[in-house]
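hey team, just a heads up i'm posting the complex here instead of the shared drive bc the drive is being weird again. everything in one block, sequence lines first with there labels, then the predicted structure for the whole assembly after. its two chains so it's a bit long, scroll down
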Amino acid sequence: MSQGSTRDGRAPGSPVFRRGMRVLWIAIRTEPWVCALAVLGASLHAAATVGSSRVLGHLTDTVILPAFAEGRTTAAAMAAAAALLLGIGLAKALGLGARRLFAGLMQFRMQARYRRKVARRYLRLPLSWHHRHPTGQLLSNANADVEATWQPLAPLPMTLGSVLMLAIAGVAMVLADPVLALVGFVVFPLLFVANVIFQRKISPVATRAQALRAEVSEVAHESFDGALVVKTLGREDTETARFTEAAHRLRDTQIRVGRMRGMFDPVMEGLPNLGVLAVLLVGAWRLSNGAIAPGDLVQIAYLFTLLAQPIRSFGWLLGDLPRSVVGWNRVQTVLEADGAMRYGDRRINGDTRAGVRVTARDVSFSYEDTYDGAGDGSSGRDLANAAPETAPRTTVLTDVWLDIAPGRTVAVVGPTGAGKSTLAMLLMRLVDPDSGTVTHDGVDARELERGQLAEAAALVPQSTFVFEDTVRDNITLGNGASDTDVWAALRLAHADSFVAELPEGLDTRLGERGTSLSGGQRQRLALARAVVRRPRLLLLDDATSAVDPQIEARILAGLRDTELGATVVVIAYRRATIELADEVVYMEHGRVRDRGTHEELLRRSPGYERLVTAYERAAEERATEVAGPPRRAAADGHHATHEASTTAGTRGRTGRWMGEAHPGRNDGATVDTEESV
Amino acid sequence: MSAPAVTESDGHTDSEGRRAERGARGLWRSSDSAIGTIRRGLRLSPEFTHGLGLTLVFATAATAGKVVVPIAVQQIIDNGIGGGTDQPDLDFVATIATLCAVLLVITAVCSYLMNYRLFRATESGLATLRRKAFRHVHDLSVLTQNSERKGALVSRVTADVDQISVFMQWGGLMMLVSSGQLVVATVLMAVYSWQLTLIVWLCFLPMLVGVRWLQRLLSRAYLRVRERTGDMLGTFGETVMGAATIRAHATEERTARRIDETVLATRKAQVRAQRLSMAVSPVAEMVAAVANAAVVVVGVLLGVAGDITPGELVAFLFLVTLFIAPMMMATEIFNEAQNAIAGWRRVLGVLDTVPDIADPGEAGHQLPRGPVRVRFEHVSYAYPDGPVVLDGADEEIEPGTRLAVVGETGSGKTTFVKLLTRLMDPDEGRVLLDDVDLRDIAFSSLRRRVVMVPQEGFLFDGSLAANIRFARPEADDADLEAAMAQLGLDDWLSGLAHGLHTPVGQRGESLSAGERQLVALVRAYVADPDLLVLDEATSAVDPHTEVRIQRALDRLTHDRTSVTIAHRLSTAEAADEVFVFDSGRVVQRGPHTDLVAQPGVYADLYASWVRSSA
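-- predicted structure starts here --
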């Protein structure tokens, strides 16, 4: 929550008040009829409430006091009195019912309308936008922020009714006795001012309490998510301390809220009561002058007790406004977020099932950096104050060139963090490059019609997202594939056997409230999801890492053997996978270092050779270690030296802390370093 | 729930009972009555009742303040202005008004003190409840076993406690004040006229019954709202978390339809609940009108008979307004009370769940430092309602051994390391570290000596340094850099934009899967354990880096025991010894060179590995 925007004044005339009114005006314009009915109900209730005090005053003078004075009454007078009281009660009840019903309707309709808008916007915004914002924040934007925005709609009709009620009451009081009315003109503005002061004081604290409540929840979420780490490192106590700190901050703020509310409630109740006493005092004096009848006195005193509650609705409305404005700003940030992916009107060679020719020319890509000096990266990610244009950026890909002929299988290989997954996302146009172009069959990906690429290509990502849906729907994603096709895809992905064993086969529900799958099963599901679409370009991003090697080999062989004829780009470390490829692209630090066949790269690219022969070399080294004295066979002299010198440079210090726990222990690192040098 | 497993010293108790206990774990709801729940809840957080006596005194005084004005009205009408017939007694009126004003101010102060004290007591009590529940959840093994239940567990320390908080500070307070208000009003009314009091109660009594009935309908309606909202949040979650998948397969339209469905269903449920909840107020207004009419009619008749004064009758009409507000709010209050009790019951349910993997605590054994000897004695394990995943394992790992564990998916190797690190306890048999039963070792000692690196490198939102320091808070940046260098990761570190201070993002998602695993590995290394357990901890790391790390670890841990679930058999080749798992049993064990030479599961696995990697 941004504190700055809620701290400035909240009194009428302040920016928050004006902006809040503008938000409410939008709701009124959007739902004019529902709003009108709610206000109508509120007005009826307001008029009837003031009317009821007048009825009471009238009955005091015409029925009650005469009857007591004369010691007798008539049945007709009694019936009239009862009818009057019941009639005014009915009017009050009807007004109240209509007000509450339509106020709720208006609030819920606006909520639903904006939830749909926000969610649809999420669907349109590019992935790069999604990456900039934490998941939790986007979820709370669609839910809590929308709710907060339209929260003031609940008390709005009541508040409007109260304005009317005060106006009618003012007139009624003046008509009864202008002098007594003066008491009212002192008390009611006082109540109003007390309301405003209270809301001004409590709003920032209440907002803070809300933010702290979210913080408690975040800490719990993260801590429970990382439970395995917490448990295996035995950090339960520090985690509990971290959580308790957050819980105590919330507690202290809540107690502050309580202190303010505790002060406000008696004031709001006490003022009208003091007003009644003043009315009685002044009224007795007016009565002694013969200026008023006793009924007038009773009427005005009764009015005071009736009006105390409606006046509080100003407080409710004012209290909801700051959160509403903050919520609206956040909702607007999403709705107005630009950078939505633009699509052209060109199509990929539609009449063929052959593979797609993919090229990348001079492609560079970077993403917004969340580094903020403190290293926790928590600032600058709020929806309300994101500034993507000025933020520093981290470069992932630099001048990448790629040309993949139709039907070819290309392996992308490179060390951890080289930018391989980002390249796959660019080829699928999940993100657009900062500069350079990606083309499919010669067409710039940005000029393709919406949906064209998804029809022609399929990406199987590193981690699989499973929808809360049946197995079938998780594979077809509504593309209308027949069960036969689904089973064929499952067979190709070697997922048919485990799906067949699920309790309800294709109809088994997956996800949080359904069956959970293992990592390998999820990957095979994702593979089937891609295959069932008969893609002409298949992008596999380490998509079989959790699958047993034997099964992986069979899957990949199957993909090659089918008559799919697709162009395949596979990101992999396993040598068998790489060797299936016609060509290998070797990446390092965001650049394409080399390309060629596996054998060519082995010969001329030392980095590549180091990567793919790592296991063999390790085995050889062990063989020499077993045979001769322990020596490090430095396949890569540069690396060994570099590593050794760094280790040597820090040896003194590491020796200290690694050694303090076991003084007698001689670190392997030390020995090894000396040998290498 | 039965006693924790520690007390079953020999471990050979009936596994049936234990199985049943695991099944019952799903309930997690204390079965106490409402009163019992409250009593136990209060005992758990003594802050709730701290100074409650004085608070109640203030509450009583504050409630008494509610009838000051009706009394003033009655006194002034009857004695001050003489029912409009005599000349008003202005001195009397002034005296009464002043007296009542003083009383109002005093009761207002009491009301403030009551409010504040109540907030302080409840918030302090709830903070304690949160802390206790949070700590307890971390002690439950379900957290590390079943990722699907985590959301529900978070609710135990957040939403459920919030519900209690809302009730105590709004509904509960209202309930206290309102019932006090009704009592005080009734007493005063009875003093004025028992007949009229009876009439007012006769009018409102049916409402109290009706309110209970309506509240039951309402709580069902609210439950529906919560369910629909849950569905809606689910689809929002898919939209956000599945963003890449939705775009890659262009299923935006389909997702939009799903969103519309759940959003509109939520709206429908909300409107329905609103219709029920709003129904009370108009009814209360009508009942009040009936009561007013009856009071006026009967009151006038009584007045004519001389049983009541006009001031008393008018005061009665003021008192009837005190009845309306509690009636209007009664459904909401009952509903909140029900939610709060349910929430409290759920929190207590968590606290009642005996940790099945219990810490022997201070009484537990402290392991001395140095390489660990591991022994499995006839250890079996089966998941509740599942097949046996580990079947009578009898194995020993010598101190300082580098052990590799291999086998196909589902062969029992993960269960083996979970039992070894005491993330679970065996159904039968026992696991011994340095000849001490794992269940007898204090967690403080165990977690320092034995550290596991799970496959998924979970990172906390923060910097790289903060994440590594999680394992060793006293380490400074230079220590961390040294550790990275020792593992041969200095190259990778210097490639990061901000080095150790690089933010890793939520769950570490700013880093690639392989990089997350690297950080997790450094974290475990910095913890400096004597038994290091790696569960496919480098599966997403490139082979060159993996080999280098493996080699560095071999060097650095050469006099420690290490157990590695090997994703790639290169690890098995480098190990001193290999355990080969198949269908819950260790079918082969020995050094790589021996195993590969004899026909069997290992030779097959190895052949297939060589085919795929070389």
